[in-house]
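Archive entry: two folds, one per protein. Generate the first.
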Amino acid sequence: MKKYFALFLLLPLLVLAQSQGVLTRFSPANGILVGTRNSPTTTAATSADVRALWSGTCNSSSFLRGDGSCQSISTTSAANPTASVGLSAVNGVASTYMRSDAAPVLSQAIVPTWTGVHTFDAVPAFNGGASGVTAPFSVDSTFVVSSLNADLLDGNSSSAFATASHNHAASDVNSGTFTVARGGTGVATLTGIAKGNGTSAFTAATSSDVIGLWTGTCNSSTYLRADGSCVASTGPSPGNSVNQVALGSSAGVSTDYMRADAQLALNQAILPTWTGQHTFNAIPIFNGGTSGSTAPFTVDSTFVVTNLNADTVDGQSASAFAAASHAHSAADVTSGTLAVARGGTGTTTSTGTGNVVLSASPTFTGTVAMAAATVGGSNVCRADGTNCPAASGPRHAYGYIAADGSGCSLFSSYANAGIASCTRTGTGAYSVNFSPAFSNVPLCVYSPTSDSTLIPTLNTGSTSLNSVVVKNTSGTATDGSFSIQCLGT
């Protein structure tokens, strides 16, 4: 009964809620809500509602601290970064802060051990090593680096190696012996008929190896027939060989036959003319000649035999001859006369005629023609007095220089007096040229000709040129005429 009464009391509330759509106890549905003691409904919270949860003074000069209190904001100023990025963290002590768009520099002296994979889109340069002394970098793995194309291998370029697929000439195999498995014989030397032994090395075949190729019973009572079988003799009986191998053939009349293992003797008295080339692997001995009387063999060609090294030539050993390149002492020239064309006199006496060397005091007859010549750097006088060397004694040069402020000239009355020309190079400055040039720098004296207040002075001098500066008594360079006299060699 009580249950029905309570339901009866709630029924109006349910009808009211149905008419309003929702219960208005919690509103709005989004955001932080705040309720009040005197109202059944909530409202949207403001920042003031949140700040009220913190103790202390909460205003524009404070901040909400994690312990639930408002604290004043410290006045820290901004500054540029001063530390660098390294491998270890460092707790700072500065009272300034770094701006959000600032970037500290990365220390390039770090020695990191990277645990992650680095990818270089640009080409890295490894400059740490010293060329020819140390490596530019090191690795701790012997695994192949895929796609790495090195310039050198152990200091050698690819041209120092053969490619993986290559061939060799037989001459390149200069040691070892090819086995049977590799197509060889398995031995270094082999004489006679070779006999294969399966995978073992070849050996020299014996007569039994050859006889073994025939079928049937092969012994002293049978012979090897051409059809590959051994058959008993049904004809003549065997006999010993009585003839020798000679140059001509012999039909023979004997009814005996020669056994297959018999050998004919070679007639050593034969005189063959061989048409084929004979190769002697052993050293031949020629004993046919008589020492000092006849030759041991003859040849019909004068061509040089390559590599033939004779002990003597015409009975003389090499010590009896001079080398192709050799010298002689003058004492070795014991006959003949050395021609002028070979640096000699062309005569055996101290006087002579024509193109020969004469005595120290020759007597000339007729007309002697001499071309211009020098001896020891000095000219030699011709018979007509020309080509003579210049006098070696002192030489005098003099002249009168006229200057008008724009140039200078040599008075014509002094032409050919050892001075060739005069050139004005500036105010009061002149270059006097000598012709011919002196062998040594001459001694020159200068004096004014019309104005006693002018003083010519020598600046520099050479064997072909003297520089003169004319000054007044105040020391100022001034144009003016002057005379010059020089003495030298």
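Generate the second and append.
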Amino acid sequence: MIATPTTNPPIRPSNVEIPEPRISRFLFANTLLAPLWAVIRIYLGYEWLTAGWGKLTNPAGVWVGEKAGAAVTGFLTGALQKTDGAHPDVQGYSAWFFQNVALPNAALFSYLVTFGEIAVGLALIVGLFTGIAAFFGGFLSAMFLFAGTVSTNPLMFVLATLIVLAWRTAGYWGLDRFALPLHVHDGDGQDPPKAGYPSRGDRFDGELPVVVDVTPRRLQEFRVSPGERVTWSFGQQRGEATADATGALRIPGVELDLEWQVLEILRVDAAM
């Protein structure tokens, strides 16, 4: 049988999730490598913390205090001397930013650099918001590179980029390992626009508890097979759930109120 070709292209779904390659999952999402990422993370954090602490405690006070901005002014003035030649160390767009934005606000940038380095260093050392801290660390390294300063910045930029990719396991041996509990957030908000609206802004005006279905994502090593059953607990609530044909797990009917509580999921075999 010969199939007749058609001029109409095949219909493809518009929302397709591309699976992550196994090598990528092993390098960046497998907790077996968590000790290695912890070492890299702590080393990078130490480098940033010592750099920021040195600026904060500088005896001349050229980073913070009355003379804040003096060091930044000298640094950027030197960077602007590297804009000549066919292949200058400092490109024109960087020079424009330094000349028109950074130099007029040298004192502000001095504080931002000092306390930014300290904050990035502390967050990386304790493993808190690891991916975010590594991103801003890489941003600082890039800014120094744009100013024509090499030193250890290329290495620190590469390590920061790798930690951003491995954010799931880089903070596993740190404070990021502890999952955030669930609750109903009830802030100040505003009045509902009209009757029947349960919330406006971050304020909740509806009845408690709120019943929601929870679909856990990025479970790292806790992967369930299609059709596998699990048990779950959330405070005094208990129940069972079954993974669908794709292995996605949905916990139905979880009651949330204003109290923080942790959702725990166990395989049926482990719960027996």
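Annotation attached to the second fold: Residues 1-11 have pLDDT under 50 and may be disordered. The longest strand covers residues 229-234.
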